[in-house]
Write a structure and sequence with these properties.
The complex is a heterodimer of chains A (333) and B (330). Chain A is an alpha/beta fold. Chain A is built from twelve helices and 14 strands. In chain A, α2 links the parallel β2 and β3. Chain B has 330 residues and is of the alpha/beta class. Chain B has one domain: Thiamin diphosphate (ThDP)-binding fold, Pyr/PP domains (Rossmann fold). Chain B has ten helices and eight strands. Classes of the chains: A alpha/beta (333), B alpha/beta (330).
């Protein structure tokens, strides 16, 4: 019998492994983005070493031209390749949104299924480093609002790896949102299986079981939800935490089963609260379970402002563990 | 006479083939406009009339596995690349038998078997996508080329700049065909564009660029042939500015107040399709009987396609949610 030692690695390395595995499995997989080849290996080092291993024809450094990057990925995907395009920071999605929403998302439909766009757009996102209003946003709701796109937001290195390999081999365009603060921070490192351990898109993870309240989240806020659950456990409140992992497709069955049991739900995300994904999910829960709920669904999200620069204001923008605790308590009154 | 006489003109067969494509476009366009005017059909329609020689001039150099990307004014490119007439008409009419099952419409004609891979309704957006097809061919090591068509107006949008630069840096096998019909929507080029010739912009990217009379089939054939040969040989992209004129304004129903009457009258008097026909006859490249036979065949083909499309059903309502993703996600 062999035992496997846990292999604790950060999300940045797990993402690198995912791309390495996908490129090794299929020569149609290639990467393109700003600065991604050696010697830099990407501004966050996520593609470190891959251009040396696979060549600069498959790990392609591009001009600072986001529309050209996504456009090239769209065309190559239709022609049978599996491009993985890196948009350095999620706010830059705004300068290539036409290629994403009018083309990547709609081409399968507009062509009646004759042409498909199996590409992945990897992008880093989130506040917390005082990068200011144009380098800190979580814009996943834009993509969720666009039929044709899939949207993935991993919360830990093992999921990041398994979900990215699945995304690369998915037949449809995937926006893969990487919480920037989790790339190399050892507090978010975890045991990541060696090899091709894919996690299917559309399957939520029940991170912690509980019976009184369901907290539904994704990305970095899953960790805050778990912290809130730990605090409340000491006060006799049993909190179930669901990590959605993917917003499209959405594992609605897992959410509804949990909320049917607990009768109370809180949706947590970093993106601004107004028209955020929480609004959609809250609405779906109310539509399906109105008669069952013991309290209205609560939302905890970012403030309805641009992301501020000053440290105190930035912290005030981002939902904190205390906000989640307060929201849960408000449902138990 | 718009057609150039040169000793290195294409052979007789190619010349007649170009005329056949031009006539197919002209005949199809005339039928669409007459059915729209008489109220038999209703759809948003961007006439390509006047621009036939450009598509015919590049298309005869292409193989079925070469790619063409075009825009909403794309009917001439669709037909030149070989999109079948029946499926094309059915798609324009929103029928289940259309190229895209009626789900794309005239602005999104797609027919991969012919190599017509993208039609976009967004000005300039086909340019970066064409690079992706070029990149795919380059990565695979094939000698396929991609022709991307756009108007003079598209040369003022950011996608043009980003796409041209990337194609030049990566030496992609892409031919950028700017069909310069002198108007971007309702605005003349002189009021929107800082250069006299779009081809001047090639220098900004280190890309070979040429201006050609797009209404001269032989000149267009030469320019396209040189660019396509260079792309096939791995020598990178070319910008071709093909000067032309759109006879019927931006879209069907356009009052065309912004187009000087005399200018339009002169352009229509110099209609390049009948001019090329006359040139073929005068120079002994074709006989009257031969061309009449081609024209009759095309009329029959259009008759057949119209009947096919008009008698085809609309898509089933079940199609609403198919093709959003590979599996159905609601």
């Amino acid at each position: 019998m062999t035992t496997t030692e846990p292999r604790i690695i950060p999300m940045g390395l797990a993402l690198n492994e995912a791309m390495d595995i996908a490129m090794g499995l299929d020569e149609k997989v290639f990467l393109l983005g700003e600065d991604i080849a050696e010697p830099s290996g990407g501004v966050y080092k996520i593609t470190k070493g891959l251009s040396t291993k696979y060549g600069t024809h498959r790990v392609r450094k591009t001009p600072i031209s986001e529309a050209a990057i996504i456009g090239a990925a769209v065309g190559a995907a239709i022609a049978g390749y599996k491009p993985v395009a890196e948009i350095m920071i999620m706010d830059f999605i705004a300068v290539c949104l036409d290629q994403i929403t009018n083309h990547a998302a709609k081409i399968r439909y507009m062509s009646g299924g004759q042409t498909t766009v199996p590409l992945v757009i990897r992008t880093s996102a989130g506040a917390g480093r005082q990068f200011g209003a144009q380098h800190s946003e979580m814009l996943e709701a834009w993509a969720v609002h666009t039929p044709g796109l899939k949207v993935v937001v991993p919360s830990n290195p093992a999921d990041a790896k398994g979900l990215l390999i699945s995304s690369i081999f998915d037949p449809d365009p995937v926006l893969f949102v990487e919480p920037m603060l989790m790339y190399w921070d050892p507090q978010y490192a975890c045991d990541v299986p060696v090899g091709d351990n894919r996690i299917p898109l559309g399957k939520a993870n029940i991170v912690r079981e509980g019976k009184d309240v369901t907290v539904i989240s994704y990305g970095k806020q899953v960790h805050d939800a778990v912290k809130a659950a730990e605090i409340l456990a000491g006060e006799g409140v049993s909190v179930e935490v669901i990590d959605l992992r993917t917003l499209v497709p959405l594992d609605e069955a897992t959410v509804l089963a949990s909320v049917s049991k607990t009768k109370r739900a809180v949706v947590v995300h970093e993106a601004v609260t107004r028209c955020g994904f929480g609004a959609e999910l809250s609405s779906r829960i109310h539509e399906e379970l109105f008669g069952t709920l013991a309290a209205p669904v609560a939302r905890v999200g970012g403030q309805n402002t641009p992301v501020p620069y000053a440290k105190n204001l930035e912290t005030a923008f981002v939902p904190q563990v205390a906000d989640i605790v307060a929201a849960i308590k408000s449902l138990n009154k | 006479m718009a057609t150039t006489n040169r000793p290195d003109s294409p052979d007789r067969e190619t010349l007649v083939q170009m005329y056949e494509i031009q006539n197919k476009i002209k005949t199809t366009d005339e039928r669409f406009r007459s059915m729209l005017t008489s109220g038999q059909i209703q759809l948003i329609y961007y006439s390509p009339r006047g621009q036939e020689c450009i598509s015919a001039g590049y298309a005869v150099h292409l193989r079925p596995d070469d790619y063409v990307v075009t825009i909403y004014r794309g009917l001439h490119d669709h037909l030149a690349k070989g999109v079948p007439m029946r499926e094309l008409w059915a798609e324009f009419l929103g029928r289940s038998t259309g190229t895209c099952k009626g789900k794309g419409g005239p602005m999104h004609i797609t027919h991969p078997d012919s190599g017509l891979v993208v039609t976009t309704g967004i000005v300039g957006s086909g340019i970066p996508i064409a690079n992706g097809f070029g990149l795919a061919a380059q990565l695979a090591g094939t000698d396929q080329v991609t022709v991307v068509n756009f108007g003079d107006g598209a040369s003022n949008i950011g996608a043009f700049h980003e796409g041209m630069n990337m194609a030049a840096v990566w030496k992609l096998p892409v031919i950028f065909v700017c069909q310069n019909n002198l108007y971007g929507e309702h605005t003349p080029m002189s009021m929107s564009t800082g250069v006299e010739y779009i081809s001047e912009r090639g220098a900004a990217y280190g890309m070979p660029a040429v201006t050609v009379n797009g209404n001269d089939p032989v000149a267009m054939w030469h320019a396209a042939g040189e660019a396509i040969a260079r792309a096939r040989a791995g020598e990178g992209p070319t910008l071709i500015e093909a000067r032309t004129y759109r006879f019927y304004g931006h879209l069907m129903g356009d009052a065309m107040e912004y187009m000087p009457k005399e200018e339009r009258k002169a352009a229509m008097a110099a209609d390049p399709v009948p001019a090329f026909r006359a040139w073929l006859l005068e120079n002994g490249h074709a006989t009257e009987a031969q061309l009449a036979e081609i024209e009759d065949k095309i009329v029959a083909m259009v008759d057949d396609a119209v009947e096919f499309a008009m008698n085809s059903p609309e898509p089933s309502l079940d199609e609403l949610y198919t093709d959003v993703y590979e599996e159905i996600i609601k």
